[in-house]
Write a structure and sequence with these properties.
Organism: Streptomyces carminius
Number of strands: 8
Radius of gyration: 36 Å
Number of helices: 48
Structural class: mainly alpha
Strand content: under 5%
Protein name: Secreted protein
Shape: flat
Number of domains: 4
Strand order of the largest sheet: 1-2
Helix content: 55-70%
Distance between the termini: 116 Å
Length: about 950
Amino acid sequence: MSALAKLLRMRERTGRLLPVEREVLDTAAPELDPDAHAVLLAVADGEIRRLPELLTGLSDAQRRSCVPHLKAWRTGLRDEWGQETGLRSRALVIAGAGCHTGASAAAQWLGHDDLSLLDPADAVPLLALLADRPAEWLNDVAHRLAGRLRSADEWGNHYLLAERLVLLSGGPVPTGEPFVRGWARTRSWPYEALRWPAVVGGAPAPAPAPDVAPDSSPGGTRPGPLVERLRADPFLDALLPRLFETDDVGAALVGWIGQNSWPPALAELAAEGRLERAALIDDCLARLLRGGRPGELRAFQAVLKELDPTDEEYAARVTVLLRLLRDGTSPVAGPAQERLAALDAAGLVDPEHLLEASRTVLFRPEKKLVRAQLKWLDAAARRDRERAGAVVLAAADALGHQDTGLQERALNLIARHLRHAGDAVRGELAAAAEAVSPVLRPRAAELLGLEATGGEGAAVPAGAEDVLPPVTGPRPMAPPPATAAEVAEEVGAALAAVRAAEYRPATASAVEAAAFERALDGLVRHGYRDREELVRALAPVVRAYPWSGHHAWWNDPGPWELRYVAAVLGGEEEPAVPSGDGARAAGHPHGRNLTPFGEVLGSRILEVAWRVVHDPVPFLLATPTYVDGRLDPAELADRLAEYGRLGAEPGPCDLDQALLRLDTTAGSVPEALAAVERLGKETGAAGAAGRKVHAWLTAGGPAVPEFVRAMGRPHQYGGRADPLRRVLLSGEASALPCEIGPWARPLLGAYIGSGKRDQTSWNPAARLWPSVLPVHRELLALHLQPTFAATADEELRGGAALLPVLAEGGGPAGQAVHLGLAHCLGARHAEDRTAAVDALLTLAARGELDAGRLGRDLAETVELGTVKPNRLLESLREVFRAGAPGVVWSVLATALPTLLAGQPGESGGRKPVRGLPDLLALGAECAGASGIRGPVDGVTAAVSELASRGGTGRLVKEARRLRDVLEPPAGK
């Protein structure tokens, strides 16, 4: 018996070789010579350390002859896991590295994910195999590997191998961003690299790298301080300049403390002359000028702080500091502003630079920067009275700032220095004063000797009407796809949209839900007409989006499930057999962890997939009439009549979804009632469906009970130390006019406000949720309330995406919609606040905004700490800038009395609401712009009491300003 036969017999007895592996060896045996075949046998035995010896004596031709079999073997083990298969996968990596003779092919082989399986001990035979290749070849492979690095590879085996190959070759160092990040991370945390063999004298050695000091423990190693390792690093000169040009490297520079921290190490190397100090300063400033995330830029600010440039060094770079002040983020612009102000005080910059800085800063929204700039201007005028004219003109730019308090600061500065500025500046100051807030115009007029044009004590202006978005009716759905080719185009477009949005927060769109419905209906229609033609038309889509061979839902099914239906049509997937009226998507093997919306969507998709093959129907009943998801009752009646004529049986899930979409307020309801009443007198499935629709229309849909409001602690994520408190809504089950399937009952059943959110921001199916309940937005908002709240107190990004669609939906906009709006107006992320502003303006334009309810909700959520006032202020300011000051005032008029009473303090008393002065200032602006005069319930008394207190604090000043807008003092 041959050695191969003995080996195979042994493997079969122990079960260690998989059938696919035996097949590879059987195929290779007659094709390879014994020396080459011995390499494959060593792989089968997992004898990694024998591979260098076996491969060293082979010619290039013999090595290449092994490659097809090694590739087939690796493919066969792709989805296999286990200790034995893992050992053979590691052996495959090393054998393939030795058998690929071309640099491109070797880099592609080594760039595979399997390289991450290697143990550090495996690196010794791997590098021994590669060390005898030409230096040019090694450097080529290293650069190709470096170009293939992904974020997960940048400090693992892929980076370490590329680095060792560069050292073996002695050639140029790769300077691509992934390699630079890998270099920075391994220098910050070198312990993994220590386990790989070092390269000494151009050859691998199983000893620690030369920049590693021996540990005191037996056989151990530990890295020396970073500054010592960088001093001897052969990559330092090539890669350090690239460090300042590479994204996402900041965490590696400041993520480690003590001896592994980069900023003090770079400063020490600059001090001793190993690095050029001026170049480091320039690189830091250039990187800050490029911008980026605050956490990323902090690393380079730390390097700059350690370098501690002198005033003279900064004075030589004034133009860069001015650009940082103009274009930098607030954490970057602030230090640049401080440094410029210090240079100005020391007389090291031209006075014109102060004016240039002011022209830049005074239009920025960051109040801290504007206050600091005004302080700088004031100090400059105090030092040199001859600069007073230029200073007051520069300060006048702040008169147009959105914050009234900053406008007042600018007016105070102008008042202090106006007498030294001369009369020549008054004309320009008067022009600039036109932009001042109405509540400050009398002060500006008095200061400049002008006629008052409004504000405190002025004639009451006529309140301008709010500018609100136009109200449009629902857009009708496009006609069904006329041909199979059109269906394929619709399906392909929907799948492409899913791929494009993968791993990104969901942005809800009624248009996208409509596209899904059209494509799904098209698959049903043309599968009924000519299934073979439809399959042929879908062939390009099927090739472009391969089917995985199995179907599982670990989250709600969404638009991607069109590919599942296409797979069923083409025979790639066998559809699940419906289990009768008790079927639910979550009870099916394909469904896991579905939301109530996912139950409806999943059950309907499973039903469609079964019927397109086993019981085709001419079209779907639930396809919406309008883009927002609503279904016209007369159209449903016509579809049921056509089903009856053709003898088709309505799908239970499809019919229930049609009921949930029925617009029971449409003008066609009487006509539809008559039609389904006639249909209901017939026998069979169509008659039963007609009676069901008649009952639904007669009752006007489900009766949704009033929700119960309570305070509670929501489900917590991440073990927060400060437990949240929220307003939680709960609801009893809706009263149903007829029986519906179990797939739809969770949507209409009782809902307990536990505060546990659905991950709508990362759930692609969330884009379809509004179309499931298009005329019951209160129910949709009820299920979404913890997600809306999480945008505010858990800083969830994208959680408000569905809010604008809700605002345009059907049904009452009650407490769930308004509470969701209140939470999202205080969202952490700007895109969520923008969505809330759009929803607020839409509700106001449609006459559906209950300003009193929203004001009370805002006051309550601020009092609980769910909504932060500064974020709410940004949202309300945006509504004001959009041209709706009356909407803002109507909301604030209800919220302010509660906010003025303060928040509960830790000791049981009340403490002032942080940010309240800004809300009062906005209220004064909105009331003035809307022409609001006279007592306002709850507001006038509260602000008058606050305004009557002594002191000059901003809260008292803003209260006085609002009081005087509502009730101007007598004689003015």
